[in-house]
Amino acid sequence: RLFEIERIIKTFKPKSALEFGCGTSSVMFAKLLGVDNFITLEENKFWAEKMLKSCPKGLDINVKIRNNVIQERDEVVCFYDYEELDYFDLVYVDGPSNAIEKTEIDKYKVPIKDIAYSPLLPNVDVENLWKKSIYPKYIVIDCRRSTVRRLIKKSNNRYSVFLKSDLQNNCNIRPYSPYIYHTIMIRK
To answer: In the prediction, which pLDDT does 101 show?
Structure first.
């Protein structure tokens, strides 16, 4: 995955990136783009601290802790609770956690009907940017089939879509994307 992220950065040459969900990928983005051109959001303080401790000295990654919100829109979705973000050339979607256990449903104050065990909720952080008329040049989605489905549907054909290879195979689409782990959306 890291090699693929490096290839994406070197191919598309974004000047700035926003990551939803921190981890080793955050270190890669910060090294390649510089810490002043990169922000990551994370809902779990443990993972944020673990990522920061693993950083090389002098690499002070800007990680913002934000709550994971689960909400019913036209379907039950998840996103980070934030307002202050602006335009970034590249947005990387790898968080927040998009699984909800049946045993946790009652703690969320949204009506959830006929939900299966451990559904994977679509992440709508990019959609929230679109509502603010912010359209990143590149959207990179790490797996997250439900998010890919929703973003394609909601993008109004503003983006060319390159499905990660196993999604292409599952859809009987002849593979044309060189990406194994990531779906790439490029603004037209």
So the answer is: 64
